[in-house]
């Protein structure tokens, strides 16, 4: 594994970097120090990543039995870039064991120089809308829970059949993504209704959208934006069918090139602002931290990302059982959800830093009620015992 990592990472200059602090901005510079070093996996993974630790590398590689794990700081790239790194390292590892593995899909050719487009900031290429749409700012329902000790990362994995989930989603006239978004909104509504509250609040999901689907780019850097499917229980009681229909219509209306280009332009406007560019970094850090804790983190009830159906070269398929994806340690007492599928195996990975598992229980109970078989795995001792 260490040999495979050393060989493959030379193909990814944006990941073989260290972060530095300038007067006005942080920036990435090439990192030629030894590493990153492959280590045995730990129970509470996805820990905070100090910039000066691990020879300043912003990624970690772990192994456990037949499991290979990659953790990467979000400043390096999004899920697409990280999946290219993970699959390419895995392909090189299998080749070192004597297997013949082709290039293709997320497995890149390690003997080719990186395409210049892989290194570009694609936001700036497409941030050319004539208006910057306002961001939604209403306070939403937030899950309240008992915080675990620092460096505790609780995960609950649900393993399902893609065909089973698709069959159920079809009965609601929805895609798998729309259906699972609706199930999470339903679970959050049930959680809110089960608590004592002075007043109800909207439940909202922060969902990343891969912009490469709409704007051609080979970039391995971040190229996503957020959409926020929501349900407002103050308008009345929603049936599950109504939730699915609302999510379906929201996706159709907002996830298109025109709206997304406006959102890109809003993102880029901050970076282009000449006044903000000359503000010292320590002031930027303070303002961003306050904005996130007081505004951004209160703008959604949970996070959900869906990498969709992953493909690998045909000669690599026999060596892959499944993929898992985890969003990093949540800043607040919330749960984040990540979805990915490979062949007929669909995994739903919940991650949180609180003791309670109410949202996850409401979520998986709804799937079972709809006739979907679910296998649960977790690093929580209480779930393992039960």
The overall strand count is: 13
Class inferred from helices and paired strands: alpha+beta
Percentage beta strand: 15-25%
Task: Give the N-to-C terminal Cα separation.
Answer: 35 Å
What do you see in this structure?
- By secondary structure, this protein is α+β, with helices and mostly antiparallel strands.
- The chain has helices at 2-8, 79-96, 122-126, 162-171, 176-193, 240-254, 257-272, 274-277, 281-294, 358-369, 381-385; strands at 17-21, 26-30, 38-40, 59-64, 67-72, 154-161, 203-210, 224-227, 230-231, 302-310, 335-342, 345-352, 375-378.
- The strands form 3 sheets. Strands 6, 7, 8, 9, 10, 11, 12 and 13 form an 8-stranded mixed beta sheet that branches. It has a 3-stranded mixed beta sheet with strand order 3-4-5, covered by helices on one side. Strands 1-2 form a two-stranded antiparallel sheet.
- Helix 1 crosses helix 2, helix 4 crosses helix 5 (176-193) and helix 5 crosses helix 6.
- The radius of gyration is 21 Å and the shape is globular.
- The model has no long low-confidence stretch (mean pLDDT 92).
Describe the structure using short key phrases:
386 residues, alpha+beta, eight-stranded mixed beta sheet, three-stranded mixed beta sheet, 13 strands
Tell me briefly what this model is.
The protein has 11 helices and 13 strands. By secondary structure, the chain is of the alpha+beta class.
Q: What topology does this entry show?
A:
Blueprint: H1 2-8, E1 17-21, E2 26-30, E3 38-40, E4 59-64, E5 67-72, H2 79-96, H3 122-126, E6 154-161, H4 162-171, H5 176-193, E7 203-210, E8 224-227, E9 230-231, H6 240-254, H7 257-272, H8 274-277, H9 281-294, E10 302-310, E11 335-342, E12 345-352, H10 358-369, E13 375-378, H11 381-385
């Amino acid at each position: 594994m260490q040999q495979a990592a050393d060989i493959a990472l030379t193909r990814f200059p944006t990941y073989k970097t260290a972060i530095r602090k300038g007067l006005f901005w942080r920036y990435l510079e090439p990192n030629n120090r030894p590493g990153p070093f492959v280590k045995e996996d730990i129970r509470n993974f996805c820990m905070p990543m100090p910039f000066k630790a691990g020879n300043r590398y912003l990624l970690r590689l772990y192994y456990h039995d037949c499991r290979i794990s990659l953790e990467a700081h979000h400043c390096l790239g999004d899920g697409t870039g990280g999946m290219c790194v993970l699959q390419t390292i895995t392909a090189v590892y299998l080749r070192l064991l004597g297997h013949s593995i082709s290039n293709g899909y997320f497995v890149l050719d390690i003997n080719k120089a990186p395409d210049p487009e892989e290194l570009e900031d694609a936001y700036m290429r497409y941030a050319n809308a004539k208006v910057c749409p306002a961001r939604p700012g209403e306070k939403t329902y937030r899950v309240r829970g008992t915080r675990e000790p620092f460096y505790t990362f609780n995960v609950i994995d649900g393993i399902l059949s893609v065909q089973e989930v698709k069959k159920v989603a079809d009965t609601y006239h929805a895609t798998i993504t729309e259906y699972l978004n609706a199930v999470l909104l339903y679970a959050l509504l049930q959680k809110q209704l089960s608590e004592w509250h002075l007043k109800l609040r909207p439940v909202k999901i922060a969902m990343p959208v891969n912009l490469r689907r709409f704007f051609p780019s080979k970039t391995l850097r971040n190229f996503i934006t957020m959409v926020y499917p929501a349900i407002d229980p103050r308008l009345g009681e929603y049936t599950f069918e109504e939730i699915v229909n609302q999510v379906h219509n929201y996706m159709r209306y907002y996830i298109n090139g025109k709206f997304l280009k406006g959102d890109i332009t809003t993102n880029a406007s901050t970076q282009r602002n000449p006044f903000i560019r000359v503000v010292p970094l320590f002031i930027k850090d303070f303002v961003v931290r306050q904005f996130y804790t007081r505004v951004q983190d209160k703008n959604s009830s949970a996070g959900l990302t869906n990498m969709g159906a992953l493909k690998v070269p045909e000669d690599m398929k026999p060596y892959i059982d499944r993929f898992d994806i985890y969003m990093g340690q949540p800043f607040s007492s919330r749960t984040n959800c990540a979805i990915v599928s490979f062949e007929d195996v669909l995994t739903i990975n919940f991650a949180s830093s609180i003791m309670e598992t109410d949202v996850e229980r409401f979520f998986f109970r709804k799937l079972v009620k709809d006739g979907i078989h679910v296998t649960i795995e977790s690093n929580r001792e209480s779930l393992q015992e039960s």
